[in-house]
Prior knowledge:
Order of helices and strands: HHHHHHHHHHHHH
Number of helices: 13
Number of domains: 2
Distance between the termini: 141 Å
Radius of gyration: 63 Å
Number of strands: 0
Shape: elongated
Largest sheet: none
Amino acid sequence: MTRPPEKSALWAILAGLGWPLFLGSWACAMFYGLIFWGPLKTELVLRYFAGFWISEVATWMFFVGLASLGFKLVEIFTQEPALRKIRLPLPEQGDQQVEEAGDLIDYLESLPARMRNSYFGRRLHDALEYVERKRSPQGVEEELKYYADNDAARQQESYALVRIITWATPMLGFLGTVIGITMALGGLDAEKLDSNFQDAISGLLSGLYVAFDTTALALSLSILLMFVWFLIDRLETQLLERVDVRANEEIVGRFAQIGSDRDPHLASVERMCVAVMRATEQLMQRQNQLWQSTAEAVQQQWGEAIVQSGQRLQASLSTVLAESLDRNAAAIEAQQLSMVRQADTLSQAVKAAGEVAGLETALNNNLNALAGAKHFEEAVNTLTAATHLLVGRLGQATSSERRVDLQSGQQERAA
């Protein structure tokens, strides 16, 4: 796998030289603004920081070095989250296989650029690339030590600008001393000493002030810068030590190791066994997938068959029930019509029975009257005719009703 570039060349130049120069110059300008127009405008401050151009150059160099150290301090603090948050995924069981180093590299490359470009992120990335390239974790401890030495060397190289400034600032002070002494000695004049000794001594002292003030200022700024440099260097050294410890915890002992340098064939056999096991595992997975797909297809077919059978059964039951309901409805309707006809017949029979009862009453009255009048024979004939008339009416109403035998009744009464 190819590793993306950590930083562009332009950013490296700006971070290493451009930004310290810009911010240092800006801070120096603000400082001299406070000296000339602010609360720092005192005789002592003007004498040491604005008395000669060498003092101003030394002050500017001090602020540039301080800005460079400020960038280093910010970089150290931004590396702290990487130590806490970067955790390589652990294997589900047993040791991690060498073939999984590529997955771990992909995990690191998915992290934010700030964490990926940290000391810890680069250390893990380089170590995993070594394991992936060698296809074995053998020698990874020595490789981690080599990476630690490289980081320490890069750490020292990152202070190159500060190192130059701390070296050049005292030299600049000594240059101011030489220039001041030269100015003091060059201002001496024998005639002026004879005529005006006080003015000659004042010129000599002003030159000596320049000589020793520039040296004192340069040495003071250099000592202060070196002290700040020492503190930041110690912080970064402690950071690198913690990176070494965390890298060893994450890499050393993570991967399964078979064999040694004295027995390389054992590692080859182990890799072949692992390859066979993985091929077998993949074959079993494909077989399981095939069985699962077959079972799902059978289940789906059974489900469809059951649904179709249910639909056919439902349709058959619906048809049978509909026909049965239609037949029952027709039978009920026929029975209802028959009951209506029977009710009409019964009503007519009841009506006829009422008429018969009325006729019987009338006939009895007539018989009683005729019997009293001695016209019994005529009454019998009349009764016979009425009986025949009544029987004819009842026969028209219904054939199922019982007939009234008036003749036998008459005979019974006559008897």
